[in-house]
């Protein structure tokens, strides 16, 4: 059944007038130069940001708990966490993983295991996590291992917002093609599974908090889905070639 997305899911608040340095008070935003880097242990709290040196790109923890990467002059976010819990905090973990914490609960994570890595927002807008050797181990076009509720995969579009999911060893990928077909690949070429939906350019895919995993057209109409009816379910691809929906320790659905 085709489902219309709630308008509020993709709604993003207007861009904030001033960005603040991590740990600084909002009142100081206009007089303090903003860093382009989030170091291990540093946080973004409500209305705090990091910004590229050019000032063109800004990563902000919004009032509604959604973290957005915005480009000056562009209304749509280039990337967002998809989390909507006011009062949440983005933390750059010492293990190389970004986490969003609500109260004492981790509600979202993204990145790759790499001790003492840092998050950098360069002038290109290609937000990435760099290890201590200066190598990017994650960037905004990637999801590694597990797709949590709210995080999104995207097909290529004119804004360059495509996001692909990778197994930890990068052998297996789950991605949306330009025609909207979601495919599970080995070594980037061998198709192991697909939705077969090929008439939906600029599609996106995510699993919602209630366990509905699906793909959606650029207009928000559902094109394919699988409903687990289990809140908290996540999508996972593993190094052994498994593509799964998992709730806690229980495999709810094995596609491959």
Structure description:
With 256 residues, this protein is mostly beta strands. The protein has 2 domains: 16-140, Orthogonal Prism (Agglutinin, subunit A), CATH 2.90.10.10; 141-256, Agglutinin, subunit A (Orthogonal Prism). Helices cover 2% and strands 39% of the residues. Strands 13-16-17-18-19 form a 5-stranded mixed β-sheet, with no helix packed on it. Strands 1-10-11-12 form a 4-stranded antiparallel β-sheet, with no helix packed on it. A 4-stranded antiparallel β-sheet has the order 2-7-8-9, with no helix packed on it.
Features:
five-stranded mixed β-sheet; Agglutinin, subunit A; single chain; 256 residues; 25 strands; 2 domains; disordered N terminus; Bulb-type_lectin_dom; signal; mainly beta; four-stranded antiparallel β-sheet
Number-wise, the strands total: 25
Strand order of the largest sheet: 13-16-17-18-19
CATH architecture of the largest domain: Orthogonal Prism
Radius of gyration over C-alpha positions, nearest whole angstrom: 18 Å
Shape: globular
